[in-house]
Amino acid sequence: MNYTKRAQELNQTFGQVLQGCPQLTLIGDPVLRQKTTAVSVAEGLVIAQKLQETLLKYRQLTGLGRGLAAPQIGEAKAVFVTYLNDTFKIYLNPKIVALGPQLNFYRESCLSGGYLSAEVKRPATVTLEYTNEQGQRQTEQAEGLTARLLQHEYDHLEGVVNLDKAEAGSISFMFNDPLEEKLRAV
What we know:
By secondary structure, this protein is an alpha+beta fold. It has helices at residues 3-20, 41-62, 144-157, and strands spanning 67-69, 79-84, 87-99, 103-109, 116-123, 125-131, 137-143, 172-173, 184-185. The protein has a five-stranded antiparallel beta sheet. The chain has a four-stranded antiparallel beta sheet with strand order 8-5-4-9. 32% of the residues are buried. The mean pLDDT is 93.
């Protein structure tokens, strides 16, 4: 791999992201370190719409991105969205209620982290309670990449970024293709 060429490509793409998604907050912004506050359904849906628009724009520019939390657009509110199988899902006032005992590794990146990635160890399963867009309280159990995504976005609501959970010495520029990344056993 020609690392100089790849670094130039990443810099060019990141410049386009900053221009195309000016509301995206980056690591170093204090809002990413705040615990979020609860939202009403009406307020949460307004924020979710902004998250969806920003995530779609980011995906158009990079081809990447599976989730986005309110702090990542400067709002210290308990809302995040996911985008899996060409479908958005809205999570209002989520709370992790259970984590499975088995762990796995994955090289995580984050829209707020630019092109930094890190090996992060997380539980392989999660149970999350949240309010949906109709105002109904839901419980979701997830495993694999979906469990990881929910934990990653939930961490944003707690003022935590993926680099905080990085395995020692594993933070690096993202020279790999994140779409090729696989979960690995601990």
